[in-house]
Amino acid sequence: MNTIGNLLTNLRTVLCCVREILGYALAFLRAILCSRAVLAAKLLAAESQLAVCKQRILEKKDPCPRFTASFRLLWVIISKSLDKWEDLAPLMQPPTVKKWHTTAFRYFWRWISHRKGGRPPISKEMQNLIYKLSKENPLWSGERIRDTLLLLNYDPPCNDTIGKYMYKPRKPRKRSTIWLPFLRNHLDVSWAIDFFTATTINFATLYVFLVFDHGRRRVIHFAVTRNPFMNWVIQQLREAMPFDLQPKYLFRDNDGIYGNGVRAFLDSCGIEEVRTAYRSPWQNPFVERFIGTLRREMLNHVIVLGQGHLERLLQEFIEEYYHVARPHQGLYGNTPVLQMKQPQILGPSKLISIPVLGGLHHRYIRVAA
User: Fold this and answer.
1) C-alpha span between 284 and 210 (Å, rounded)
2) 20 to 30 Å CA-CA from 350: which of 130, 180, 266, 334?
3) CATH code, domain carrying 298
4) pLDDT above 80: residue 233
5) pLDDT tops 70 at residue 5
6) Buried/exposed code over 244-282 (b: 16+ C-beta within 10 A; e: otherwise)
7) Same-domain status, 157 and 187
8) Alpha helices in the chain, H assignment, sequence order
9) pLDDT value at position 118?
10) Is 119 helix (H, G, I), strand (E, B) or coil?
11) pTM of the predicted model over 0.70
12) Looking at residues 40-69, what average pLDDT do you find?
């Protein structure tokens, strides 16, 4: 039995040797039969990987190979030139070489585009038109802008080029494209209410309540108090709306002073309440801008002595300057109380200045000399 076992073992060893010899012979015949170019490519593939391993050994670093840009480019060429190149790449995975090819392809076409100058440039006029249409119509896509330009008998570029020159807001707001057009479309029939505070000379806090007309940027009513509460606000709204002079919409924030009574009062008057989102003053922009103007042009330059003093200052600023003398960009340079242009004066004339708030501001009247 031992003899038979030894014979089988020896026979298996002989067969393995024969198979190995046949493999070497087959590789030798394949090398003889293949062309010199293929043989040189295989030799280059082996030498390149051997050089990488030798470099890592000489540097005595992590044995994991680090491939240079030239090595990657070489293997991109080899992968496109040899069949079954995967068998020649024991140091890297085939998906890795394919990824290198994708990167090289991208760099190649970037270089080609840069050399040829890319897409032909469009005129400055067309760039301005695309920017204007996209800014004024934030819901429009590049395709719609292109169709609009075609209807206007322009020769527009492709959609990708249009997207390059479209207006891109810094902080896009999802609701702004809905809220602001609604506000603009109802300016003449909407008011706004809001509070702001002022500090007196003895560090007391006064609350100022405003009722603001959106249409003419006009202050309908204001009142000052030390302790605002819901019933006081309702009374101020009654005083602001005599003889059925009332808006269709009333904008307000979520201040707790209003309570539920203000909503019930507005419902009884047939006024639709429009509440802004939490911490979104941009949804009530006109009254917020007026408060900013009031602070910059008056409150930052005076010291409030008390409630009566603040009421006199507000009355003079609003009635004698803001309503009749201060021009507004939103009103095309006119004032909240519509002012007619003075007739042209023939001959010499002079300008009369009327001080407001002790000379902090002035009103001007042009008269004949």
Assistant:
1) 13
2) 334
3) 3.30.420.10
4) yes
5) no
6) eebbebbbbbeeeebeeebeebbeeeebeebebeeeeee
7) no
8) 2-33, 36-59, 69-81, 94-116, 124-136, 142-151, 159-165, 176-185, 230-240, 261-268, 285-297, 307-317
9) 56
10) coil
11) no
12) 69
